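Suppose you are handed a protein chain with no further information: no name, no annotation, nothing but its sequence. What can you learn? This example shows the usual starting point.
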Amino acid sequence: MLETRERSAIIRDGLGVGVATGAYGVSFGAVSVAAGLDVWQTCVLSLLMFTGASQFALVGVVAAGGAPLSGALAALLLGTRNTLYGLRVAPLLGWRGWRRAAAAHLLIDESTAMSVTRPTGDAARLGFVVTGGSVFVLWNLATLAGALAGTVIGDPRTYGLDAAVGAAFLALLWPRLDTLRHRLVAVAAAAVALGAVPVTAAGVPVLVAAGVALLAGVLTRESRGTGEAAR
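A reasonable first move is to predict its three-dimensional structure. Written in structure tokens, the prediction is:
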């Protein structure tokens, strides 16, 4: 059992992360409406997909005139990291049945980070639920607010919202550029995507850039394995 002080600290930290992350849903709501989705489509996307990077990828491709299938593929590629999170978090939470299915929907960067750092299973479960639950509720409320605001302000290009997808994507990416390797991969992916823009349909450059990142990950893992074997 958790002590009262430890429980309060976990709840406080989880709610803090929830407020900070959930509020960003306003941007997604406005950007999604600017991309051509209506309020209900935007809200359903947040309810059912519930992973910010994938949501921005989908509306970004649609905003650029790409096919919805290309947008869905880009969103799927970005969402594959959640599978790796699940492999790490599932043993910590120890849930089965409907609890495990419900937890899968709340499996995002923030809920994972707030659970894997806990010393006990009880603490991990509390951190996961409080963080994931608060982000889910606030993200969806903020999405609705942003979508409604986007329908009121008129033509989004007047206010520069047509550039908001790229800005939001950059904001999601920037904190992850914390090592030289990540920066080099990002530069290479951006260069390949820019080169693909004139010769491919909208949405394809995003998929090509994702392929560069996947290839870099595979090559890095192989080089590490070779180095360890040489020892």
